[in-house]
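Let's inspect a concrete specimen:
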Amino acid sequence: MKLSDFKIKEILKFLVGGGSAVLTDALVYWLLQKAGMDLSAAKAISFVCGSIVGFIINKLWTFQAKRFSFAEILRYCILYTCTALINTGVNYAVLYFVGIQIFAFLCATGVSTILNFLGQKFFVFRKGKEEEK
């Protein structure tokens, strides 16, 4: 991995895509909650909706992965499962050692955002030899 592998425009697109996914998650969660759905079920559904939006935006716009493969979807699910666990662990550890909830949330979000960017760039939407040309 070289510094030239990172493009500011790509990072900014990733942040816009992630922001869109978070907004989708929050809106769906709010709507389902207002409709009377159980909060845990509403959160699970809203998280999936946000993840789908993030996948589509990052695949097509941020990383411009032209080919479609089920392997990408599987790698995306693996990545987000791992980063969700890491996010939870960082949040727990910072809360344990520092005790400031918003600081723990921001640290956990920062770590998982960086890992999600790297994971999507180099693992999920990696370009094959034929796409690099």
Remarks:
- The radius of gyration is 16 Å.
